[in-house]
């Protein structure tokens, strides 16, 4: 069996008030008059009033936090008493989906089959993936049934291979490679690390009552301040007979951009040509623009009740078959090339590394993490993009196993 690598928290508004007062007149000279009891009583009363006001303010500040901490404690006790977390067993073919530990310091990867090209750019190849903090993906068993994680869930981990060139070598082809991995320290990662246990119930697949209860219990009672204003109110109930979703290809699609900790008033909408976006690839800032990369379809991809009957027919329904009997000339020649990996060796995603000063679109290399299921060895392959069907020019053996993951990128040093 072989695989084919193709080339083709909201913040509250703060009010700041600056107060100023006219300068007081200088104090009169002391003349030894006896202190008035009224003055003493007034000072004591003012001091007591200020103390009470401070206590009330402190109580008002502490009360919401106390309520929140108490509700979280009660929710934790309920989940611990009703739900039991169990490890999902791995099938023999799923061994490389298991998580790995952080290795700490970078480790020198010394075993290289082939050679890294002399004009390969210095830099780092990184790839992300799911890496559950507390062992294998979990299932939660309760009176509601069983719900389970899937392999794409879990804390995120970055795997990195660094390429450093020895410029003192005579031929300029001496390289030093280091591997390292590290968890992505998100808020949820820090929370689970602090509590030393899973803090979210699996809510992806399983028995419907278990999935629903997990989904509801994973919610919090805190509103983060992201609201939407609807033009018309609506309600969905058991008597629905309307067509709730419709693709209007004569209208437009909208892309919403909002700061990470923004609110509804900070959202900007951009109208684009009608399309259905079904996977956001990346989003980043470039100068004064926000660039959104997504997979889109010009026609509707809203699934219907017969989606599962004939998926191949469903995907091809937007194409019209036929032969042009009166056509002249020739279409541009299109071809698909692939790199065949060794038997029982698999990869997850490949990144293109362009040559410095590249002129052609395939002037560079493909780089990817691969894993051999037979010997449990992980490597990084470098493949010449102009000769993608040929043997990898370099296979760098890694000091530890790298689980299958998602997306990667090569970051040149310059």
Automatic annotation (TrEMBL):
<dbReference type="Pfam" id="PF03055">
    <property type="entry name" value="RPE65"/>
</dbReference>
<feature type="binding site">
    <location>
        <position position="407"/>
    </location>
    <ligand>
        <name>Fe cation</name>
    </ligand>
</feature>
<keyword id="KW-0479">Metal-binding</keyword>
<keyword id="KW-0223">Dioxygenase</keyword>
<comment type="similarity">
    <text>Belongs to the carotenoid oxygenase family.</text>
</comment>
<dbReference type="InterPro" id="IPR004294">
    <property type="entry name" value="Carotenoid_Oase"/>
</dbReference>
<dbReference type="GO" id="GO:0046872">
    <property type="term" value="F:metal ion binding"/>
</dbReference>
<dbReference type="GO" id="GO:0009570">
    <property type="term" value="C:chloroplast stroma"/>
</dbReference>
<keyword id="KW-0408">Iron</keyword>
<keyword id="KW-0560">Oxidoreductase</keyword>
<protein>
    <submittedName>
        <fullName>Carotenoid 9,10(9',10')-cleavage dioxygenase</fullName>
    </submittedName>
</protein>
<dbReference type="GO" id="GO:0010436">
    <property type="term" value="F:carotenoid dioxygenase activity"/>
</dbReference>
<dbReference type="GO" id="GO:0016121">
    <property type="term" value="P:carotene catabolic process"/>
</dbReference>
């Amino acid at each position: 069996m072989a695989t084919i690598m193709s080339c083709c928290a909201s913040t509250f508004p703060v009010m700041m008030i600056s107060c100023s007062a006219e300068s007081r007149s200088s104090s009169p000279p002391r003349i030894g008059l006896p202190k008035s009891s009224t003055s003493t009583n007034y000072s004591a009363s003012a001091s007591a009033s200020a103390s009470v006001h401070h206590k009330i303010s402190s109580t008002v500040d502490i009360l919401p936090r106390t309520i929140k901490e108490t509700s979280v404690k009660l929710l934790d006790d309920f989940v611990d008493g009703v739900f039991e977390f169990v490890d999902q067993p791995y099938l023999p073919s799923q061994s490389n989906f298991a998580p790995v530990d952080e290795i700490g310091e970078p480790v020198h990867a010394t075993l290289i089959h082939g050679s890294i090209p002399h004009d390969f750019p210095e830099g780092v190849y990184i790839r992300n993936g799911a890496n559950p903090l507390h062992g294998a993906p979990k299932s939660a068993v309760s009176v509601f049934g069983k719900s389970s994680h899937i392999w794409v869930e879990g804390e995120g981990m970055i795997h990195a291979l660094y390429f450093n060139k020895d410029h003192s070598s005579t031929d300029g082809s001496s390289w030093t490679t280091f591997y390292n991995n590290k968890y992505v320290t998100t808020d949820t990662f820090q929370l689970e690390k602090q509590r030393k246990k899973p803090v979210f119930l699996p809510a992806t697949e399983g028995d419907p009552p278990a999935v629903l209860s997990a989904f509801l219990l994973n919610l919090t009672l805190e509103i983060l301040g992201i609201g939407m204003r609807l033009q018309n109110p609506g309600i969905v109930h058991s008597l629905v007979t309307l067509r709730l979703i419709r693709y209007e290809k004569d209208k437009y699609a909208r892309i919403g951009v909002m700061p990470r900790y923004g609110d509804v008033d900070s959202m900007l909408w951009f109208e684009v040509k009608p399309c259905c976006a079904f996977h956001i690839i990346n989003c980043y800032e470039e100068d004064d623009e926000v660039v959104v990369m997504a997979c889109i379809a010009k026609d509707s991809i809203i699934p219907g009740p017969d989606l599962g009957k004939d998926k191949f027919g469903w995907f091809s329904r937007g194409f019209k078959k036929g032969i042009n009997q009166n056509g002249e000339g020739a279409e541009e020649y299109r071809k698909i090339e692939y790199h065949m990996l060794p038997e029982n060796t698999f990869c997850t995603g490949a990144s293109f590394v362009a040559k410095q000063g590249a002129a052609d679109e395939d002037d560079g290399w493909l780089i990817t993490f691969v894993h051999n299921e037979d010997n449990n060895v992980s490597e990084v392959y470098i493949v010449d993009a102009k000769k993608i069907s040929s043997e990898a020019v370099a296979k760098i053996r890694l000091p530890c196993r790298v689980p299958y993951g998602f997306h990667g990128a090569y970051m040149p040093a310059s």
